Amino acid sequence: MGFEQLAALKAKLAEQAKSESRTKTKTKTPPPRRAPSSNPATRVDPVVHSIGKLQKRFPKAFPKNPAPKVPLKIGIFEDLLTHAKELALTETELRNAVRTWCRGARYWACLAEGAQRVDLNGQEAGSVTEADARRGQQLRAGRAKPASAPTTPAGTADSQ
Fold it and tell me: Which domain holds residue 104?
């Protein structure tokens, strides 16, 4: 295809675009609406919905932020399984919700030695052991990022 033919094609396409533009402005049809879940920015993680259900049903065991989290009873997952139908959650959804709930610095901070663990109703159900408290501190320390890592190990700098 030569330059003349390309120029003619370009002019024809430009004219076609103008005519389509005029037609669209005359009819002014609204753009098609998308489903809310089609936008990644508005999607909510299903675990967040599961945790919301737990917070609504068991507010003393799963307090809403900014209230501090409380140490949960050892074996609370089995207790939650008995309420799965009532909460309309599957075992996997419950497992993911509890795992996410217990996996953050806010939860690890509540694991102080001697702190009372709670059941689903907020009643005392044991206490945090020294080992549990130490593990919580380790997890929090592991989550904290170092300010800057040295580029060379100590004592191995070149002395040339």
Answer: 46-143
